[in-house]
Design brief:
The protein has about 475 residues and is an alpha/beta fold. The chain folds into 2 domains: about 180 residues, NAD(P)-binding Rossmann-like Domain (Rossmann fold, 3-Layer(aba) Sandwich), CATH 3.40.50; about 240 residues. Helices cover about 55% and strands about 10% of the residues. It is built from 20 helices and 10 strands. The strands form 2 sheets. Strands 3-2-1-4-5-6-7-8 form an 8-stranded mixed sheet, sandwiched between helices. Strands 9-10 form a two-stranded antiparallel ribbon. The protein is elongated and about 100 Å long.
Length: about 475
């Protein structure tokens, strides 16, 4: 007690490498150390100070770095920071971990949080955290905070992801870091032992791993339909009649291609679910594993849907820009000049077709927008499972139906017009309608009462190879099983 009373409350700037913080004699907050003075260290120190922690920063040159940190944080030497702190963030590049070996006695028995990342994805190991644990065997190493940026730390969890992945071989050290995460406003995710650190370090280095196939599929379909439309609408008039319409390539050809890709991609969202349902009906059980290609397809449905929404939104913007083109205004003036007296301008059939066509397109885009919004994690977490499945399944099929109707109204009678088969190729909308019609017909087939009842039985555990008398819940039976003894 006398020593505590004799200690000054405000330490002089010359002591402890230029300390600038107000130190209380008794404090409930533990001292958190940070090794390193980079951008991440400064943001981490600011976030820890705002969360009520005492922060001490270890630097090789404290006088040069103290102006970069908050006033409440103490910037001192690495040796003194290691001796004061109970928990230390190692915020230096992994190739510089060896420079901290002289701190091994001061860091013994303490928790080290490794926040480093590699330069490239590492599949072989060992991870940076495992190497740090080998260097400091008497310390408890926790891997974490490497999946969030300095901006996310500085702004807090409101403007960034709230999850922080943690792993360690010490449950005590991991629990203390998890408590620190919660106090900072983040959500810790326990990833198990330190052997999972390699997976955590590879997370921020992965470039859209779940988006690769949907994006490639979107690009492939776009190139395919663009070349097909170019061949029919641009090249065919030039070859057969010598008419140059290459001006259509930037706007019109793209605008015809985008809805084709959007509708096919939307059909690819619901086709894997139908394949899975028919696979279960064919096998008579839900316990057979899906093929690998179907499993990967099922897990990519969200990305397929968002790519479809992107193409549909771009199609709407391109469509709105069509009247603004000089070529469109020129065509309109030319049509007015060539119009003869007595020509019928108002064609009832064409007027109704266009009205219904535009209305169906707007409805399809609105429903697709609802699907895209509910796929966001923040929105999906605010609805229950029944609401989510209703939107993604029922509303999704409504969007697919409206988009199919939109395409049918666009085609109208063109499928029966021989002049539309340029180079003997069918109109684009006929090719586009194949997969959506297959998806809608497959959905109708699953709605047949006998098929729907059998599929519901299978998904409740019924198997055709095991003689279980199964009854659905409209009867007075428990757990939807009438007799489970006859197996």
């Amino acid at each position: 007690m006398p020593d505590d009373m004799a200690r000054p409350l405000i330490r002089d700037r010359g002591e402890a490498g230029g300390s600038r913080h107000l130190e209380a004699s008794v404090s409930d907050s533990p001292v958190i150390g940070i090794m390193g003075t980079g951008d991440f260290s400064r943001s981490l120190a600011r976030r820890l100070v705002s969360s009520g922690y005492q922060v001490v920063v270890g630097s090789r040159n404290p006088k040069r770095s103290e102006a970069l940190f908050p006033e409440e944080a103490e910037v001192t030497s690495q040796v003194e920071a290691a001796s004061q702190a109970a928990l230390v963030f190692v915020a230096v590049f992994p190739e510089h971990h060896s420079t901290l070996l002289e701190l091994k006695p001061s860091l013994a028995g303490k928790t080290l949080v490794d926040v480093s990342n590699g330069l490239r994805i590492n599949h072989d190991g060992p991870s940076n955290a495992e190497q740090l644990a080998d260097m400091f065997p008497e310390s408890d190493v926790v891997k974490g905070f490497n999946t969030i940026s300095a901006w996310a730390l500085q702004r807090g969890p409101r403007d960034a992801s709230r999850q922080i992945f943690l792993c360690s071989n010490s449950s005590t050290a991991k629990s203390s870091v998890m408590q620190l995460c919660r106090r900072m406003g983040f959500v810790p995710v326990d990833m198990g032992l330190l052997s999972s650190s390699l997976e955590i370090e590879n997370l921020p280095l992965s470039l859209f791993p779940s988006w690769r196939i949907p994006i490639l599929c979107t690009l492939f379909l776009f190139i395919l339909f663009y070349l097909y439309n170019f061949l029919r609408d641009v090249l065919q008039p030039y070859v057969t009649a010598g008419k140059s319409v290459f001006y259509k390539m930037p706007i019109e050809t793209v605008n015809v291609t985008l809805p084709s890709v959007a509708l096919v991609m939307l059909a690819l969202v619901y086709l894997p679910g139908l394949c899975a349902a028919f696979f279960q009906l064919w096998s008579g059980t839900k316990y057979n594993r899906f093929p690998n290609w179907l499993d990967r397809w099922l897990t990519s449905r969200k990305q397929f849907g968002l790519c479809s929404f992107l193409c549909a939104a771009l199609h709407a913007i391109y469509s709105l820009s069509l009247p603004m083109r000089k070529s469109a205004r020129f065509k309109l003036l030319l049509a007015v000049r060539q119009m003869k007296e007595g020509d019928e301008v108002w064609v009832e059939e064409e007027v109704w077709r266009m009205e219904l066509y535009v209305s169906a397109g707007i409805m399809a885009l609105g429903l697709l927008s609802l699907l895209a919004v509910t796929s966001l994690p923040s929105v999906a977490n605010s609805v229950n499972w029944r609401e989510f499945t209703f939107i993604q399944s029922t509303v999704g099929y409504c969007a697919l139906s409206m988009a199919t109707i939109h395409t049918l109204l666009f085609g109208w009678g063109r499928a029966f017009d021989p002049s539309q088969y340029r180079f003997l190729l069918p109109p684009t909308f006929m090719l586009v309608l194949v997969l959506p019609c297959v998806a809608l017909l497959g959905r109708l087939a699953l709605c047949v009462p006998c098929v729907a009842r059998r599929l519901q039985q299978i998904r409740r555990g019924w198997e055709k190879t095991r003689h279980i008398r199964f009854r659905l819940p409209e009867d007075n039976c428990r757990n939807r099983l009438d007799d489970v003894s006859n197996v």
